[in-house]
Amino acid sequence: MKDFHQSPNFREGKFVNLIPTDMNTGFKDTVSMLKDFLKPHPNRKPTTPIAVESVGLAPNRDLKQTKVTWLGHSALLLEVDGKTLLLDPMLGATPSPVPPFGGKRYSKEAPLKIEDLPPIDAVLLSHDHYDHLDTPSIKKLKDKVRKFFVPLGVGSHLVRWGVDPAKIKEHDWWDETEFAGLKLVCTPARHFSGRSLTDRNTTLWASWVILGEQSKIYFSGDSGYGPHFQEIGEKLGPFDLTFMECGQYDERWSTIHMMPEQTVQAHLDVKGNLLIPIHWAAFTLAFHSWTDPIERVTQAAREHGVSISTPRIGETVHLGAAEYPTSTWWKEQS
């Protein structure tokens, strides 16, 4: 594992954001959130389970083709230059260490079973929150994966769950690594970390850049809006495809989760071409309507002339296709 105590992003025993990021809500905000929690809101989740597409797992024979399958929330199955990658593969039933209190996945199950996956070249993790780093998923995946690429400190979780330390590579922001013909760059995000009340910000959070021969891809992880997007775009853009967080937001914690309009601006900042919004349609982790993220982000994309794809969960997007999935499938969901 990499020694992170020398990282410029680690100060006084904690990792820090590039710009001040206040995550402590005052008394007024706490009271208002309690009221929102107790207030009935019939559209915070679908009234019936979301239908998902069955994922086809045939190997990608065309090495020039990049394709991605959204698995719900921020989990993605990415095939690029003949390599198979999983991004934040949270495929469990609930994003909580205490399942009865964490809320259930909107669909009855994830669109694929880990047992059915082919060998995975690499898993990229953005941070250690439960809705991105799921213990049962990692335990089932660990013997299928060649390498895990994670932000500083996150490897300790994987080792505890039985992942061979030799399979894990930890990275600080702006670290670059070559893997199987791909260049992977660990890039900044504006967020926080922690899996309990006592370990906040003891591991790093990140976004990721995947540079292949055929395509350049950006994965935001979780992030509030900030100047890091423009810096990433200037240093590493433009990108053929971006996966941008869009969901679980609130004005009271907008420093750590973007509002949907900021999602589109962040895509423009990194110089993205096709935008796929993620971090929605799987769990209720905020007070907004479950369809609010996609309605607002598609409206903002139209206003800014941004190309956006809205696949169903389990639907595959082929980069460079004549058309991309753009149905308003959520409107069919009761």
TrEMBL record:
Signal peptide (from-to): none
Kindly provide the name given to this protein in its UniProt entry. Answer: MBL fold metallo-hydrolase
Metallo-beta-lactamase domain location is 85-280
Sorted alphabetically, which PANTHER family does this protein's record hold?
A: N-ACYL-PHOSPHATIDYLETHANOLAMINE-HYDROLYZING PHOSPHOLIPASE D
Instruction: Name the species this protein comes from.
Output: Tumebacillus amylolyticus
| Database matches in InterPro entries | Metallo-B-lactamas (IPR001279), NAPE-PLD (IPR024884), RibonucZ/Hydroxyglut_hydro (IPR036866)
